[in-house]
């Protein structure tokens, strides 16, 4: 895949450092979607360049699984996910619970009253993902995400996932 027109490495110094030190020139991700049952494994960046075709594929994979609408995901989110797997020293695919959410889907989920759905959710901006890694205790995944200091980390043990986003550094338990 050509890297022309790609953007550069994410703006999170801790994540960029983790990626630069001890990682390969190619950055890859592997994910299984718990709702669509789709699987994806690809190289999304080489060196400091994101691969546009890979980003397009990831946008589609992380689409709103309720409506099918595809949003544009923040590539910095993939760097967080890459660094998280590297820090945990695992190669298992992520299990994705939720990626992009359209405003309509987000409002519908809020109206259901299940909790944990913010009015101005970063899922609607393509800056958040809810995930887990089989075989990795949820607390361990949460702690590793917190150590990155790269964005928001929500811990949802009752729903069996961790939320990570590229917003400001903060944490909460849902």
TrEMBL record:
GO terms for molecular function: metal ion binding; metallopeptidase activity. GO terms for biological process: cell wall organization; proteolysis. Gene3D superfamilies: 3.30.1380.10. Pfam families: Peptidase_M15_2. Its cofactor is Zn(2+). It comes from the Bacteria. Keywords: Cell wall biogenesis/degradation, Hydrolase, Metal-binding, Metalloprotease, Protease, Signal, Zinc. InterPro entries: MepK (IPR010275), Zn_M74/Hedgehog-like (IPR009045). Pathway: Cell wall biogenesis; cell wall polysaccharide biosynthesis. PANTHER family: OUTER MEMBRANE PROTEIN, PTHR37425. Belongs to the peptidase M15 family. This is Murein endopeptidase K. The lineage of its organism: Bacteria, Pseudomonadati, Pseudomonadota, Betaproteobacteria, Burkholderiales.
